[in-house]
Amino acid sequence: MNTPKRYTITAALPYTNGPIHIGHLAGVYVPSDIYARYLRLTGKDVAYICGSDEHGVAIPMRAKKEGVSPQDIIDKYHGIIKKSFSDFGISFDNYARTSDKIHHETASAFFNKLYENGDFIEEVSAQLYDAEANQFLADRFVVGTCPKCGFEESYGDQCENCGTTHNATDLINPKSAITGNIPSLKETKHWFLPLDKHELFLREWILEGHKKDWKPNVYGQVKSWVEDGLRPRAVTRDLDWGIPVPVKGAEGKVLYVWFDAPIGYISSTKEWAAREGKNWEDYWKKDDTKLVHFIGKDNIVFHCIIFPSMLKAHGDYILPDNVPANEFLNLEGNKLSTSKNWAVWLHEYLEEFPDQQDVLRYTLTANAPESKDNDFTWKDFQAKNNNELVAIFGNFINRVVVLTNKYYNGIVPTPNDFSEIDEDVLAAVKEFPNTIGKSIERYRFREASQELMNLARLGNKYLADEEPWKVIKLDEKRVQTILYVALQISTALSVVSEPFLPFTSIKLKNILNVDEKLSWEDVTDTPILLPSNHQISKAELLFSKIEDKAIEAQIEKLQATKIANEQENKVLEPQKETIDFDDFTKLDIRIGTILEAEKVAKTKKLLKLKVDVGIDTRTIVSGIAESFSPESIIGQQVSVLVNLAPRKIRGVESQGMILMTDTSDGKLAFVEPEKTVKNGQEVS
Ligand SMILES: [Zn+2]
Description:
By secondary structure, the protein is an alpha+beta fold. It is 42% helix and 17% strand. The protein has 20 helices and 26 strands. The strands form eight sheets. Strands 17, 18, 19, 20, 23 and 26 form a six-stranded antiparallel sheet that branches. The protein has a four-stranded parallel sheet with strand order 3-2-1-13, with helices on both faces. A four-stranded antiparallel sheet has the order 5-4-9-10, with no helix packed on it. Strand 18 (607-612) and strand 19 (617-622) form a beta hairpin. The structure holds zinc ion. Residues 146, 148-149, 151, 154, 159, 161-162, 164 line the site of zinc ion.
């Protein structure tokens, strides 16, 4: 495409069945926000569009589980998600809801146009049916073995393991997700989009036309699907949650969520255009508009095959210029999972790291899963903050601002003769917008963020080499020039950091007291970014060091989640061999009270206890030190097997055994009487 007149940028519509975590941010929302902010800074006409997808079948399922209505679920999570986006500076021009009237109308009209064109196949076919639930099973209502990769928990429309989409009837050993029953087959009428008819178009448009400019991971997936052969896909469902199919004879049926969701980008654009006095059609129907879809890799098939086939069949719409899908982000080596609570939730992050949105944005960009799955670790998060944001970016700015205030009362000094180094540095600064911009335009956000840090490195090195704090004693005029140059670098940073670190950029502009409207090109084209005699403000720290303690707390929190998951999934031991009553009566179990407790030297797990078991007071060594501190259990009543043969443990003779059980967080718990009883009472 030649220079586009305008940009329509879409970010995947999140399902409103849970809050947003770092995986969402890294995969879709931070890169798309960097892209949109960058384009706006270069003066482009941008519509950055998103909204809540409120028709997913996960929503009525979650509602059923929580005993509330689907409306309650979507209202709750739409609010939480929208707030998270705004808290993290995701600068959507519009954030809509697919439950909005304008979307129902837009999606219905879209369906009708294809229906009238004869683009659907209408077919009565046998579909999976759960007689007990009185419901047809599709999408997430059915699980079974993926016909492609053999994954046993595949959904009816897509396998989360290999990403393949299929029809529910393709599943091997399907089971109802509602009742667990094996479904029967029942006839019902549906409308199918014949993807096979669009194969030639897809081959020409993507496999030929976008060989060079689409990311290899996206191109490769599309190629493999097209080459596997495309088949008609049902775009309607027998459900009561969604947009009713707008034709006669379709009562009780709704549009497949993946048919209506991408149309949500169009209806959200309409809503925005109406509010802003723009023409939405310019953003979706004009050839000089560049349409870019930001998504995660699990959505590639919908945005590269199904939605383009719909747009093409409709005839009035442009096609995406690019679909820069990211791979997945893992967390500390494991797949992010909402159901397993294996995630860093954005609202929780902000409670624990208040006002540090940019640290997370930066870490997720510098480590973005652009070409392969990547891992988020708390140690890396700490290192990115302490070693880059604090030590390089923050340190440079702080020194420049402190020295300018100290030597010149915060007034930008007038430079004297520039040295060769000064000239080189000032020339190098002007190159950065171009370098960073090129990376952004090629959807290489990691690379772009590293270039941003290189600009800060340039400033930091310049100061370290020129040492104005030493030169001030020898050559005051030289210091004027050094700080003047350093202040130009600082101003450049305040502009080019904006797409990546929007909160920091505002802070820095306030410190430098510069116009918020400085554009990307100004950094390259304006001869003087920050003029002499301009008054700047006092220093203020842009970033602060994150201590080991804060990181350890996060790692411990994840560790606790892991243990809780393990406990939850723990398979209970099968019942042991049957014994006689006589065998049981051989066990002499008594209630006792712990009188004294101390650690057994050089061991982690052992406590040496003095226990009053009624008949006597005896020493018992117990492996409970990881669950209890000695002082916390004095006076605790316990159950003791008193006639266990004494044995020496670490040199201490133990005369009995305290009965324990496990709790869900992996700790131990005492088996104690429900009321305090006399020591020595038998358990029988
Ligand atoms: Zn699979």
